[in-house]
């Protein structure tokens, strides 16, 4: 063994000794740290067990049984009174009138549940706008430390049949107060948030507080798609014509950075609406809908969240009022509060909403006062609407009848000008034929177009009308929801899990009416596509659309089709007969006709197109 080999072995031995010593030292240090962590964990576990024991001792019932208590992580407060408030037991109090019953909990001095009287859920159980424990309403602010009132139990300072006052005291003096009051015959709950004697608690540079309200709206109606489609979140800017809307049947969130007056968590027929007379300065809104499976198994429709910011000036005593509307989306009731609440009722665009407000709603209310069967109300209202638009209908039929009289001559023109190159000549000949017969090209379409706002108004009105909710008629057990004669037990694409008889009958009458109308159309090949759309596609499309919508809507369209078919038969047989139309056309043809400006412009456009075509032909 030479010298170099010996030195190598010595160095290797030193390295191995040093590494072993280093590892042993690191292991000792790690064991010490772990022992310290274990000690801390044991202390925390003992503290949790102590708190749990205190709560179990306080929850012990008179007969020695214990209630189940959930142990939660408790925040540490500098203020000893806040710590006591965090550990205190919550109580629940009820304020009620003839309209609603509202439970309040001292945990956060907030609404605990809302039951609306005179209404039932789809399964005939009590109707809760939100069920016990499904709401969390808290005030967050800096009062020497960050606090959120939803985590703290208030003390009841005053309780009457119509109001409850709860206070959260601070060790340095002063308290936060929440006063809730309810007046007879109203869905409005008044709230006063007060900071009393808090000048030594809230720093002067604190100029705002946050409000967070999270609510789970339960399932209240029969059909998931219909209820989801008409449930949303609204917020309103002072002076605007209509509120802003988010989450119309889909998950959505939105940040609002400007001041606004009120907001509403809106289910199809009921709303939780909050108004700030001093306006909210900004907000974060979000809505998440439960799946159809959760809707059926858990009984929940949507989870709504509003994170709001409000400004205030700190001082000895500060009171900020709020108003909570917790009730039905009844147009008259909402309008009575004079806060533009009625604008959350989806009545359509300005023209459609105008017709609904001024004609449909007053007519519906008037008939509803004397007739309690809403199927008959819809029948009478349909007859009145048809009577109202009968002059337009007769004018449209006259135009159609004239077209039928000159149909042989139109067919001759189609045979005379079969080529697309002669389209301009054929169009000029058609216009001359229309002029001699006294037919306006828009005579048949314009009256129908004027009726479109009425059709859209009804499409909006029936699903939003709370008066129809749970009203039975014939085989339908709820006119505000779909009627079902066959439940499939599974979802069929586009159709759903059921078959609506009203929707099926509506589609059938639409088909037969379209067949009746198409027989009066020209045989022009260009009209074939329109005939196919009106006779086949429209009835099929309307069936799939209405199968999941309000049965009152399908019933109205069914009645409208039947009445229109009857009117068509009567007008053609007794009012607009072929002999009368021919006599009128002969009389019109004998009179000198002055071309309308529209006809003059059309002829000028046709001449220009003809000249351009000739010029292009010369260039070739």
Q: How are the secondary structure elements laid out?
A:
Blueprint: H1 3-58, H2 80-87, E1 92-96, E2 100-105, E3 110-120, E4 126-130, E5 135-142, E6 146-148, E7 155-159, E8 163-169, E9 175-182, E10 188-196, E11 208-218, H3 224-229, E12 232-236, E13 244-246, E14 252-256, E15 260-266, E16 270-280, E17 282-289, H4 292-297, E18 300-311, E19 317-328, H5 331-335, H6 350-370, H7 374-388, H8 390-405, H9 407-416, H10 423-437, H11 445-464, E20 486-492, E21 496-499, H12 501-518, H13 528-546, H14 551-575, H15 578-590, H16 597-619
Antiparallel strand pairs: 1-2, 2-3, 3-4, 5-6, 5-11, 7-8, 8-9, 9-10, 10-19, 11-18, 12-13, 12-15, 14-17, 15-16, 16-19, 17-18, 20-21
The number of helices is: 16
Structural class: alpha+beta
CATH architecture name of the largest domain: Distorted Sandwich
Which outline best applies? elongated
Q: What strand line-up does the widest sheet have?
A: 7-8-9-10-19-16-15-12-13
CATH topology (level 3) name of the largest domain: Beta-galactosidase, Chain A, domain 5
The main β sheet shows up as: 9 strands, antiparallel
Q: Uncertain regions: pLDDT < 50 for 5+ in a row?
A: 31-71
User: How many strand segments?
Assistant: 21
Which percent band covers the strand fraction?
15-25%
Our Rg estimate from Cα atoms comes to 37 Å
Count of all domains: 3
The CATH C-level name of the largest domain is Mainly Beta
Give the N-terminus to C-terminus distance in angstroms.
Answer: 110 Å
Oligomer: single chain
Helix content: 40-55%
Average pLDDT taken over every residue: 80
